[in-house]
Each structure stands twice: as structure tokens, then as C-alpha cells.
């Protein structure tokens, strides 16, 4: 898929903006990978790349079996 690279960066930046603006609050659970893929009309693998990027930025943290949550503000990199 030629636009996947652009899509995952665009989506990651959009979610980053929502976190930094407070629209997504610390501790808030993100929608599932499947829900995000449907919302952004992309493949699940694209959302997996988005989540990896957000985890690398320390904006979200995964809890196995429970989901992905916005990281507490003292853990996030500015």
C-alpha cells in the first residue's frame, strides 16, 4: 500500500495532537486497533505502526489484555 507510510505518520500526529491538547486525557483508554483502523479507513497493520510510534514517543502505554492508554503526563516526553 503506497500511502501507508504517510497514513501512519498522519494518524500518529493527529492522536499526538489530541493528547497534547487534552482531548485525550492521561489514563484514558484508546479505541481498539480494529476500531481505529475502521475510523481512519486503514489496515490494522497501519494502526499497529501508529501505536508503536506513540509508545516510542512515550505518549501511550499498552496494558496486555486491557488495551492502550494515554500515558500519565509525568511520563510523556515534551
Task: Summarize the structure in words.
By secondary structure, this protein is mostly helical. It is built from three helices and two strands. A two-stranded antiparallel ribbon has the order 1-2. Helix 1 crosses helix 3 and helix 2 crosses helix 3. The N and C termini lie far apart (32 Å).
Output the number of helix runs: 3
Q: Which parts are unreliable, with pLDDT below 50 for 5 consecutive residues or more?
A: none
What is the CA–CA distance across the termini? 32 Å
Oligomeric state of the chains? Answer: single chain
> Helices and strands: which structural class?
mainly alpha
Mean pLDDT across all amino acids: 89
Q: What proportion strand?
A: 5-15%
Main sheet strand line-up? 1-2
What integer value in Å does the Rg equal? 12 Å
Shape: globular
What is the percent of helical residues? 40-55%
The arrangement of helices and strands along the chain is HHHEE
Largest β-sheet summary? 2 strands, antiparallel
How many strands appear in the DSSP assignment? 2
Write the layout of secondary structure elements.
Elements: H1 4-21, H2 33-40, H3 44-56, E1 60-63, E2 67-70
Antiparallel strand pairs: 1-2
Helix pairs in contact: 1-3, 2-3
Amino acid at each position: 500500500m503506497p500511502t501507508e507510510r504517510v497514513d501512519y505518520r498522519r494518524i500518529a500526529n493527529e492522536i499526538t495532537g489530541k493528547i497534547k491538547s487534552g482531548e485525550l486525557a492521561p489514563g484514558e483508554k484508546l479505541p481498539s486497533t480494529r476500531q481505529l483502523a475502521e475510523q481512519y479507513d486503514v489496515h490494522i497493520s497501519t494502526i499497529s505502526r501508529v501505536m508503536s510510534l506513540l509508545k516510542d514517543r512515550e505518549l501511550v502505554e499498552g496494558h496486555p489484555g486491557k488495551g492502550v492508554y494515554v500515558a500519565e503526563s509525568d511520563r510523556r516526553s515534551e
